[in-house]
Design goal:
17 helices; globular; 4-stranded antiparallel beta sheet; 45% helix
Length: 457
């Protein structure tokens, strides 16, 4: 299976890909890999130990070099200073100079986070999702902190958490849901948190971080990134507006450290759920969480579970439940569950037997997003592109999409999407000139697109 390309949006979830959501172990030098292993083992062996001497590891040159390899990539959006990785790479010894300067700033504690550039990404429902884009220097510094802190918190995270974690992926969460459904936990509390990344209270988040880390230098860095002013661009003039100070909430989507901090905060929700006083014990319920998307699965959903979730999420953690999107579904009552781009439902047996089977397939929303992406890649604005390049762009998208959605029973969705792609290619070829496109004589459209190398799901 080929990995997903983080530059391509596959219609997997509403949330856009964050800058980095998994530490690639093959990019780490042996010395750093060994350091992370030692930190992880220390945290595992001493669950109550608080790390007080980490800052000098953060500004080590080998750590900063590894951080650059993760985030210093071409094609990434620039922060408020306009500096991109391409600019650094174009200079002679540019990367070495850039990292040496950052190393000196961190070492002398003269480093100060820059304001965050606010951009908005359209969502499927017509609204916009705010993203905060840090400067390249801030992204490298954040990644350096992630490299040091991640193995510590990984020792604490529970198995019910799957999002933005090393060695875990969305398919693991989906498999856990399928296993729970087969065990009879078909009553599902499908939760939706309103603007989770933008509403995490800073004081409570820092208290969670301090449960493991007391190094003042590291804590100062994290507080600086959380409190960094936000700069928006005026839609009419296109000019930056005055910086807006932090209101004490939120960790910006787009920040490299945000996925880790988001997991650190909800980790304590996981802990409370599994304690003797939580639904895991008195309702035999199960929690499956992928970042801020989660479901609570049980044989029966009563008011007690609902009250417990309200008290912990809104009362204790200070988050907001989106009442319009949060619901309880019972899959044995002809209802379905949508999670991470998939639909779970029980369907009648195809051979007419009086039985049902658990069907797992790409959701209607995911298919619509995929069709929208294909339509954009073959639309009127792409007529200038050579046909092989259009086919190559489509293949990149289709490979990534099929790699993700191969879970479950996707055959019909794959067949329908392949058919739609071929139809769009015919429309695209007919639009390229005033004369109608004619395929080679004796060839069907299917054969011609196969000769061009168009991916068939």
């Amino acid at each position: 299976m080929q990995p997903l390309d983080p530059q391509v949006h596959y219609g997997i979830t509403d949330r856009e890909f964050l800058d980095v959501h998994d530490v690639q172990m093959d990019l780490l030098p042996d010395k750093l890999h060994q350091l992370r292993w030692k930190l992880n083992q220390k945290a595992k062996n001493e669950p109550k130990f608080r790390f007080y001497a980490l800052y000098d590891r953060v500004f080590r040159l080998d750590v900063l070099e590894a951080a650059w390899k993760h985030v210093g990539k071409k094609g990434k959006a620039s922060g408020i200073d306009g500096v991109r990785a391409e600019d650094i790479l174009a200079e002679e010894n540019g990367v070495e100079k850039f990292l040496a300067a950052l190393h000196e700033e961190l070492k002398t504690k003269s480093y100060r986070p820059s304001p965050v550039k606010r951009v908005y990404i359209p969502k499927a429902d017509g609204s916009k999702r705010p993203l905060g884009i840090p400067t390249l220097k801030d992204r490298v510094a954040q990644m350096a902190v992630v490299l040091i802190l991640e193995p510590i918190f990984e020792a604490d995270f529970l198995d019910c958490s799957h999002g933005f974690r090393r060695g875990r992926k969305a398919h693991d969460a989906l498999e856990e849901i399928r296993a729970n459904l087969k065990e009879g936990r078909t009553a599902v509390y499908d939760a939706d948190l309103k603007g989770y990344f933008d509403t995490i209270p800073h004081d409570k988040l820092m208290a969670c971080v301090r449960m493991r880390v007391t190094d003042s230098g590291v804590l100062r860095l994290i507080r600086g990134w959380l409190r960094a002013p936000v700069i928006e661009t005026d839609e009419k003039t296109g000019k930056p507006e005055p910086p807006r100070k932090s209101d004490g909430k939120g960790t910006p989507q787009g920040g490299v450290i945000s996925p880790l901090l988001a997991n650190v905060y909800l980790h304590w929700f996981d802990v409370m759920f599994h304690r003797q006083s939580g639904p895991r014990h008195w309702a035999n319920a199960r929690l499956v969480r992928y970042a801020d998307d989660f479901v609570v699965m049980a044989r029966y959903q009563g008011y007690r579970i609902d009250e417990w979730l309200d008290a912990k999420l809104e009362g204790w953690l200070g988050l907001s439940i989106n009442r319009e999107k949060t619901k309880v579904v019972n899959l044995h009552h002809a209802e379905s569950l949508d999670f991470l781009g998939f639909t779970f439902r029980y369907d009648r047996d195809l051979y007419g037997n009086d039985k049902t089977y658990l069907n797992v397939m790409p959701s209607k929303k995911s298919l619509k997003k995929a069709r929208d992406a294909i339509r954009e890649k073959t639309g009127p604005k792409k007529c200038y592109k050579p046909t092989p390049k259009v086919v190559d762009d489509l293949n990149t998208f289709l490979r990534g999409w099929s790699n993700y959605f191969e879970f479950g029973y996707p055959r019909k969705a794959f067949r329908d999407l392949s058919h739609y792609t071929r139809k769009r290619m015919v429309t695209h070829l007919n639009r390229r000139s005033q004369r109608k496109y004619h395929r080679p004589k004796g060839m069907s459209h299917y054969q011609y697109f196969q000769e061009l190398g168009l991916q068939r799901l």
